[in-house]
């Protein structure tokens, strides 16, 4: 169940943020379908041997963003409807994601063409996967 | 609200020693957090731990647990603290079962069933003499006993020292479960920095008796980076590193291909300006693990001291 939810402590991205991003990625790709249960905070913390407070922080942000919903006594699930971000929020998320990727591309010396091509291919892949439900 | 642990201006000086072992340390650990105390051998970790357990009288300053002075109210406060010592020192001729029975008379909230439940999970025999157990088993018995009193504060003094990978994983697993179930506050000293990196919220680093770092782990990891770049401004290696003036460089090394530096105040914008500087070529920044940060900070010569 925690497949695809691994974290890398040596990454500069905080662990809770890695969890948040991984869940978003799994939801975006359709690997986690609307309504699907996600591992409990305790189980995921144990699987990854990380502080449960770290997992809880990542989940909390996802609940606030509407990606996950908590059903009392049942657990945590992927929301039935994809979250609608407020426009300002959406712009901010896109902008900061783009900046991070651009910084990475420049640091490792990728050409603009190479960097843009990869974004397009990733977008295409995610959209096809969502539509076709390819695993 | 004040923290579970409040250390204020704690000074410890052992007789005849010219420089104090701990120099006015102050730190605070909020309820439910996991605080990792790091430092090389001889940095003062053990003295701080002894003060927190009321085993060492501060020369000046205070250790406050749950709002009360440890040195004055040791017996009462220790009932709320579970301890896993570096070297588990239970009597070798007693079994875990006998140790639990003994401790149940000392702690008002002793939960014997939970002790045996944990020992079963750890696959450690309850009826083997403590002295005949392996090092890993001793650590796990110590942990089961430390949790038997349902402590509000768990103090782990390098609990995984000398344990193999499987025993370490079992130990941290149990700790994760404990944190998830009860949100116990934890103070942890450890040499296993990759274990600490996943578990700690906050990190303190002692060096030569001083607390040189006391910071949230996320913030700490956010401001340290390794920079690598070639310098085409000067041919003279002695002048390398000057271009780093906008950063606090903890360490600068000149390599064959250029310069490698560890900086402690990284920022994306500052780095973009740096990379665009004349003479700076192929600049790249990479994140550091807690272990690398520790080596960079703890390994740096501290001014005015020789230890």
Outline of the structure:
Chain A has helices at residues 15-28, 41-48, 52-64, 87-107, 112-132, and strands at 37-38, 68-71, 75-78. Chain A has 135 residues and is mainly α.
Please, could you describe this protein's structure?
The complex is a heterodimer of chains A (about 140) and B (about 300). With about 140 residues, chain A is mainly alpha-helical. Chain A has helices at about 15-30, 40-50, 50-65, 85-105, 110-130, and strands at about 35-40, 70, 75-80. Chain A has a three-stranded antiparallel sheet. The model of chain A has no long low-confidence stretch (mean pLDDT about 85). Chain B contains ten helices and 14 strands. In chain B, helix 4 runs antiparallel to helix 5. In chain B, about 40% of the residues are buried. The interface between A and B is medium-sized, with 24 and 34 residues.
Please render the helix and strand layout as text.
The complex is a heterodimer of chains A (135) and B (307).
Chain A: H1 15-28, E1 37-38, H2 41-48, H3 52-64, E2 68-71, E3 75-78, H4 87-107, H5 112-132
Antiparallel strand pairs in A: 1-3, 2-3
Chain B: E1 5-12, E2 22-29, E3 34-39, H1 45-52, E4 60-65, E5 68-69, H2 74-78, E6 81-84, H3 96-104, H4 112-122, H5 135-148, E7 153-157, H6 165-182, E8 185-189, H7 193-199, E9 202-207, E10 210-216, H8 217-223, E11 225-231, E12 249-254, E13 259-263, H9 268-275, E14 280-287, H10 290-298
Parallel strand pairs in B: 3-8, 3-9, 6-7, 7-8
Antiparallel strand pairs in B: 1-2, 1-4, 4-5, 9-10, 11-13, 11-14, 12-13
Helix pairs in contact in B: 4-5, 5-6
Estimate the strand proportion of chain A. 5-15%
Rg over CA atoms of chain A = 16 Å
Q: Average pLDDT across residues of chain B? A: 88
Oligomer classification: heterodimer
The shape of chain B, in one word, is elongated
Distance between the termini of chain B: 38 Å
How do the strands line up in the largest sheet of chain B? Answer: 6-7-8-3-9-10
Largest sheet of chain B: 6 strands, mixed
Beta-strand percentage of chain B? Answer: 25-35%
Number of strands of chain B: 14
The number of E-state strands of chain A comes to 3
Helix content of chain A: 55-70%
Strand order of the largest sheet of chain A: 1-3-2
Tally of alpha and pi helices of chain B: 10
């Amino acid at each position: 169940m925690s497949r695809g939810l691994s974290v890398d402590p040596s990454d500069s991205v905080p662990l809770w943020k890695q969890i948040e991003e991984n869940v978003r990625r799994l939801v975006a790709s359709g690997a986690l379908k609307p309504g699907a249960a996600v591992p409990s905070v305790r189980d995921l913390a144990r699987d990854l041997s990380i502080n449960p407070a770290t997992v809880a922080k990542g989940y909390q942000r996802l609940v606030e963003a509407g990606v996950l919903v908590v059903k009392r006594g049942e657990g945590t699930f992927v929301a039935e409807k994809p979250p609608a971000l407020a426009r300002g929020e959406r712009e901010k998320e896109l902008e900061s994601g783009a900046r991070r990727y651009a910084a990475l591309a420049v640091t490792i010396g990728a050409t603009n063409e190479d960097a843009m091509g990869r974004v397009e291919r990733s977008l295409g892949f995610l959209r096809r996967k969502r539509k076709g439900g390819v695993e | 609200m004040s923290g579970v642990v409040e250390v204020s201006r704690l000074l410890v000086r052992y007789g005849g020693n010219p420089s104090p072992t701990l120099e006015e340390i102050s730190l605070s650990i909020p309820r439910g957090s996991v605080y990792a105390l790091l430092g090389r051998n001889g940095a003062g970790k053990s003295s701080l731990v002894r003060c927190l357990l009321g085993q060492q009288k501060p020369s000046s300053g205070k250790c406050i647990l749950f709002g009360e002075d440890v040195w004055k109210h040791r017996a009462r406060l220790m009932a709320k603290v579970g301890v896993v010592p570096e070297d588990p020192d239970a009597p070798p001729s007693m079994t875990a079962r006998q140790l639990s029975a003994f401790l149940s008379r000392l702690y008002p909230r002793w939960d014997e069933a939970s002790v045996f439940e944990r020992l079963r999970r750890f696959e450690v025999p309850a009826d083997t003499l403590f002295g005949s157990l392996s090092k890993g088993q001793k650590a796990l018995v110590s942990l089961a006993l430390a949790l038997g009193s349902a402590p509000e504060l768990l103090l782990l003094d390098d609990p995984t020292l000398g344990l193999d990978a499987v025993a370490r994983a079992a130990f941290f697993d149990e700790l994760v479960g404990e944190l998830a179930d009860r949100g116990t506050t934890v103070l942890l000293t450890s040499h296993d920095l990759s274990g600490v990196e996943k578990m700690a919220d906050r990190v303190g680093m002692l060096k030569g008796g001083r607390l040189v770092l006391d910071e949230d782990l996320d913030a700490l990891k956010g401001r340290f980076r390794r920079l690598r770049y070639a310098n085409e401004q000067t041919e003279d290696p002695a002048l390398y590193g000057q271009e780093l003036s906008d950063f606090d460089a903890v360490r600068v090394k000149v390599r064959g291909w250029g310069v490698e530096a560890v900086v402690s105040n990284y920022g994306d914008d500052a780095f973009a300006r740096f990379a665009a500087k004349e003479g700076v070529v192929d600049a790249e920044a990479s994140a550091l693990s807690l272990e690398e940060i520790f080596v960079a900070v703890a390994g740096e010569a501290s001014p005015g001291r020789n230890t």
